[in-house]
Description:
Chain A is mainly α. Helix content of chain A is about 75%, strand content about 0%. Chain A has a two-stranded antiparallel sheet. Chain C folds into two domains: about 5-245, P-loop containing nucleotide triphosphate hydrolases (Rossmann fold, 3-Layer(aba) Sandwich), CATH 3.40.50.300; about 250-360, no CATH class. In chain C, about 25% of the residues lie in helices and about 35% in strands. Classes of the chains: A mainly alpha, B mainly alpha, C alpha+beta. Chains A and B meet through helix 1, helix 3, helix 4, helix 5 and helix 7 of A and helix 1, helix 4, helix 5, helix 6 and helix 11 of B.
Amino acid sequence: MKKNLTAWLCLLPAIAFLGVFMVYPLVDVLIYSFEEGYNFASQTFWGTGFYNYSYVLHDPYFIQALKNTFIIVIITVPLSTGIALLISLGLSSIKALRDFFQTVYFLPYVTNTLAVGLVFMILFKKTAYSDGLVSLLIQLFGGPSVDFIDGPYWAKMFVMCFYTIWIVMPFKILILTSALASVNPMFYKAAQVDATPKWRIFYKITLPMISPMVFYLIITGFIGAFKAYSDEVALFGTDLNAAGMNTIVGYVYDMLYGNSGGYPSYASAAALILFSIVFTITTINLMVSRKTVHYQ
Amino acid sequence: MNEKANKKIEKQARINERVRKIVIYFLLTLWGVLVLFPFYWMILTSVKGYGAYNSEYVPKFFTLSPTTANYITAFTAVPLAKYFFNTFIFTVITTLLMMVVVVLSAFAFARLDFRGKDIVFSLFLSLMMIPNELVIITNYVTITNLDLRNTFLGLVLPSVTSVFYIYLLKENFEQIPEELYKAAKVDGTSDFRYLVRVMLPISRPTIVTITILKVIECWNSYVWPRLITDDQNYFLVSNGIQEIRENGFGRENVPAMMAAVVVISVPLVVLFLIFRHKIMEGVARGGTKG
Amino acid sequence: MKIVLQHVTKRFPNRNKKIKDDVIAVNDFNFEIPDGKLIGLLGPSGCGKSTALNLICGLEKPSEGRIFFGDTDVTDLPPEHRGVGLVFQNYALYPHLTVRENIRFPLENLRGAKKLSKEEMEKKVQEAAKLVQIQDLLDRRPNEMSGGQQQRVAIARALVKRPQVLLLDEPLSNLDARLRLQTREELKRIQVETGITTVFVTHDQEEAMSISDTIVVMKDGVLQQMGLPQDIYDEPVNLFVASFLGTPQINTFTGEIKDEKVYIGDAAVLDAKGIADGDVYVAIRPEGFIIDENGPLECDFLNREVMGRDTSFVATHPLFVGENIRAIIPSEETKTAVDGKIRFSLKPKKVCVFDGVTRERIML
């Protein structure tokens, strides 16, 4: 009995915080999303139903955010995972400078996304004084002058994806290098004695053995990319709708707060739509991985 | 097998190996440059004079007359020191509070027996799937209704529990051999003394991991502080930088902006360079155990 | 295919960076492995025997010296071009592939003229599986099999491309005692059936003695002795080889040669015609003792261990090197009760004398 009490006392803070800031909001967000015409100031509403969802799904800003988010996901997840795999393979096949490269590659992980985003903005932005370094480089090779921050959609999307990849690479490289290091070198020796070509060693041995980690990165990559937001703010400022670069999460926050804010019902509906998308994709991912990934 | 053919094979193998090495080092260096260049650029720009920067249509890759003027501007024109201090306080309080909550829960799950333990733990685990974006809406409303906007309490409260870290630490606690506990019991050690004197020291690597991850998270947190603060006195560095970008220094004072960026980036980078092996190990452990 | 090692030396940089001297894993090896034999590379752990195997295989390159397969110099040839099969201590079976896929793996690497059709591959896989008697297990994965079965798969994989040389690194060390006995006979059978020159590494002298055609004994990177198992047992060239081979271990005493006789303390145990005086080690095989009331060697009797066919007498002696003397006596000769002291006479053929300083054999 005394033991019981101690245990519950130990759990009390966690349960209290989780209850107030996790469980209650979870229920609440559902309720919000069905309360039509909720007024933040008077805390009243005039009906219940699916109007909020319908509103969000017909909101051109939301459609834009949905489109942007999907483009970011589809481009950055495979690209970053692929490049990270290449780099990790390179890293694990060298000895000299390996520690140095690993340290350098990890740097973006410990930097403030908002702060470094500013540097990217400077590098890509066209101002009255300068076309921006990247644009100038393009011109050097005979390309046109492009403003990547306030210019055409594809250019903005390019910077966006580039920056996202730059930000997520450290984690992926780290995880993949340690996954590669955990493959017993005996297998490589065995393969070498059997005259296995390098690409075949990779495809037939290395990849299957690190496949759980690769899939883990793909799944978390999907989840992370679907929640993209602060990278966008870093590059394009807080008014993402105006820049046409909003994401679903950005849409949620804009609905909640800021110039266009004050609509927690719309925000809730959008958040739940996002959650169901992420949930579906993660489930599909897990199903695919169960079929293809080798677990020891 | 004849000697001549073998010689050829040997030579080919050596050449292939060398080509492979060159390609690998080239690609690794290329990515290294891509990673480092923004850092170089921000430091470079931060020491260029305001006039000098704006007169360069084609930016120069070096400067012969570095200046510290931008750093002075960064600290005087906007309350950068204040942002810094706020972030520091926020990070320390959040991390400490979270540690207490996490350690107590992990201890209860790993060491104490009570009715309903398995059910409560599964409930906790199921909460891991809930994304922050889903609950932040109500939390915003809750904190607003509690009149906690623009207070440290409001900033800190929603992020002092992490189911993931409880899980991580519980797993770690459970790896401590049962014999140690029995030995401590025989010596008449109380449960709490055992926690403090035995479990915590043994689990130090995990505690360090969690602290590192939480500090990085705090230092970079942006969304929640943005929602909950509109008073500059409570801005964290992320919000500060956004504020600087939109309103500070006049829009075009890029060197001053970069100086602020350098100042904000330095603490974590320095911390990382000192403890890089620990930090990388910690992130790898924390990242893959989920 | 005969294998020749000429002055082969392998140095590794010291792991402790403060020490500049390299670690010499293999020191000036010279030997020739005849075609079609089973060779046991024997030595205590850390003696460089695995390095020697890796050198033959090509996973390591010698710092000095040449290696020949037949008459071809393969010193700088990468392992994949040497035509060797290697069985790893932990088998190195790919966990994500089935047994069939594991065995087929080396065949799929063949290119150009050697490329095989699917049917040919399957035929070869079946042959190899049959040779090691695992035909029924082809669709399993490695983790669904016992250690002994995994071992067989590993051997099948090494043999499937018909290597000129088969190399095995501690092939039996991961098996339990019963399986070990069974597998080593199996190994011998496979070797005889295929006639492939086979080298295996082991630290277990019994294992090496029981199946090898020739044993190579190593210590600290230096080849100690090479020869037929019985020859090495009977005529060890130095004290290390004498004490490394045989269970129970050979019984070693400090002694001296004086006036053309070998003494242990005051007991003159053997004649030593024409040998100069000096300190020596006297090593006596456990089966070299005869209980004899008039024997020269007097020991303090401790106890006896009955093993059925034989009885082991445990005793001590002040000049004995190590813990206890073990004398193995056929049980029917041990009826007499012993108490306190026990006296032995010795079988001269079972006694070796080694120089007290160099520990090299002194031939009596």
